[in-house]
Amino acid sequence: MYFTDRGIEELxxxxxxxxxSFAWLAEQLRTFVDLNPDFEVPVERLATWLARLDDEDxx
Length: 59
Fold this sequence. Notes:
The chain is an all-alpha fold. The chain contains 3 helices and no strands.
């Protein structure tokens, strides 16, 4: 397990049963970046990756 997986594991254990919309997730990411501007690039990369998961061009 990578060190970063600990946060993912915590997220899954605390909120794994919840359902959220992508609009809600986008708002949470915006808030996080507003509070933590140093993480703008990684959050942008994650959001772009999530947005393009189904793109056939990326295969």
